[in-house]
């Protein structure tokens, strides 16, 4: 297990300014506790760099989530089975039910190459055991706030453990929070995306981090894409790992299949800037296709995962596949969480290029 390189990340947290050199950022003095506390108390409203029209949707006026699974099988995540509910009222017949449980990693260890976690939740500590290597756990993530996808395991009529399937990173330890990152800096999408790339991939070259973050914002501006939607998609697809290659052959940040990449005129899907061009273009096309749908974001994400032909046959509904259902729900979950980190009040999310933001 790689150890999270805290000194470098802390230094960048104290000195990241886009346009500044990497050396000067790393040499910057850490922010004082007093300044960090003041920043945490009140984060400034983020300045959107996306061209907007007059229409705006207040986050507080919208539902907190825009898609829930139908629970037609145990393989579909059940958001209603919370740790509190399962610990208080264990039902062994729920054995194997997939859930997504949020908490902070209190302890991380490895046994025979497999990760073992102790997840701290308001309802109590949860043991999590992985049967195979999981993305995002190659580094020590102790102190991270995460969402664990796993299935329930019971023994002798009581809940025993969560069998881990994947790990979604939501926030690093508190000392490396976004508020600390913002101390003295612009509250911008570039800085927010750079922070997320680095806490996912702390060994990534700093110049590459800046290039990816800048290109990400440029593509959102160019194509009028809600950045929180595209950021959620990329996080679930690749965890911001530009070298990611799936078992099916999907490549890069947006996990483009070779034929899809060719159709989008992406010559090298492992080049993060080319991949962002192709991924954003595909999302743009899907947003146009589903702009009049009843749940456009869910239709877009389902199309990205399962293919537009299947979703068209279902008139925009999310296909009843566990993989696609969970995929759409997880991206919505991550997007909601990002918006909460950015600052729920008094921020407004305007429509991007006339496209309504759906929360």
Write the SSE topology:
Blueprint (H helix, E strand, L loop, with lengths): L5 H10 L6 H6 L5 H9 L10 E7 L24 H6 L9 E14 L2 E8 L2 E7 L14 E11 L2 E14 L6 H5 L6 H12 L5 H18 L3 H12 L19 H6 L8 H18 L6 H11 L1 H6 L8 H21 L5 E5 L7
Helix pairs in contact: 6-7, 7-10, 8-13, 10-11, 11-13
What features would you highlight for this structure?
359 residues; OB fold (Dihydrolipoamide Acetyltransferase, E2P); disordered N terminus; alpha+beta; Lysozyme; 2 domains; single chain; two-stranded antiparallel sheet; globular
Would you kindly provide a written description of the structure presented here, covering whatever features stand out?
- This protein is of the alpha+beta class and 359 residues long.
- It has two domains: 6-61 and 177-352, Orthogonal Bundle (Lysozyme); 83-171, Nucleic acid-binding proteins (OB fold (Dihydrolipoamide Acetyltransferase, E2P)), CATH 2.40.50.140.
- It is built from 13 helices and seven strands.
- The chain has helices at 6-15, 22-27, 33-41, 83-88, 178-182, 189-200, 206-223, 227-238, 258-263, 272-289, 296-306, 308-313, 322-342, and strands at 52-58, 98-111, 114-121, 124-130, 145-155, 158-171, 348-352.
- It has a five-stranded mixed β-barrel with strand order 2-3-4-6-5. Strands 1-7 form a two-stranded antiparallel sheet.
- Helix 6 crosses helix 7 and helix 8 (227-238) crosses helix 13 (322-342).
- It is globular, with a radius of gyration of 20 Å.
- Mean pLDDT is 82; it is low at 3-8, 16-64 and 344-352.
